[in-house]
Specification:
Shape: elongated
Radius of gyration: 18 Å
Low-confidence stretches: 16-41
Number of strands: 0
Mean pLDDT: 77
Number of helices: 7
Structural class: mainly alpha
Distance between the termini: 58 Å
């Protein structure tokens, strides 16, 4: 089970650190006639890697007899490990939507970036605990994962912005 969790994490981190291809994004914009395309339209799994990682590793940890430490989930999601994982995913999506609706215009990045960074932190900390790493080293590993995710998303946002600026410049020159 530990190796399955580690494989999921490695795949997740590898997927989130891939750089977007600006030319591909511009092509998709032109092909789909969708001027509002952005990196968050990719798909549920890609958009929610951090919270999915946290939910999956929480479920694995609970099935191994570990205890839930997230105060958002304690007492709300029951005791069944799978129910806690699914409920946790729902709670985090509601949190993301709430942050977006209340603070959306004041945030420098989408709420999903903040929530998924926290998910990576919790998920990597969970993996550390599952594999025998103790506090506070598990939280340090979680912080490193969150930072890698945050930096990756920041690079993707910058690449997307450059892509959109290039498209705008191309359109202006063509007209």
């Amino acid at each position: 089970m530990k190796y399955l969790v580690l494989a999921i994490v490695a795949t997740s981190i590898a997927a989130c650190t891939q750089q977007p291809n600006a030319n591909t994004q511009v092509t998709r914009q032109n092909t789909n006639n969708n001027t509002n395309f952005n990196a968050t339209e990719a798909g549920f799994v890609q958009k929610n890697q951090g919270i999915l990682l946290d939910s999956a590793t929480t479920t694995v940890g609970l099935t191994m007899g570990l205890a839930e430490a997230n105060p958002l989930l304690l007492g709300v999601c029951g005791t069944n490990p799978i129910a806690v994982g699914v409920c946790g995913l729902g709670v985090k999506k509601v949190l993301e939507k709430s942050i977006d609706s209340v603070l959306g215009d004041r945030l420098a990045s989408p709420a999903s970036k903040y929530v998924n960074s926290a998910g990576y932190m919790a998920g990597c900390a969970n993996i550390a605990v599952i594999t025998g790493v103790i506090f506070p080293a598990n939280l340090a590993l979680g912080a490193v994962c969150a930072k890698v995710f945050w930096d990756s998303e920041t690079r993707k946002e910058a690449a997307l912005k450059r892509s959109q600026e290039s498209k705008q410049l191309f359109t202006e020159v063509a007209n």
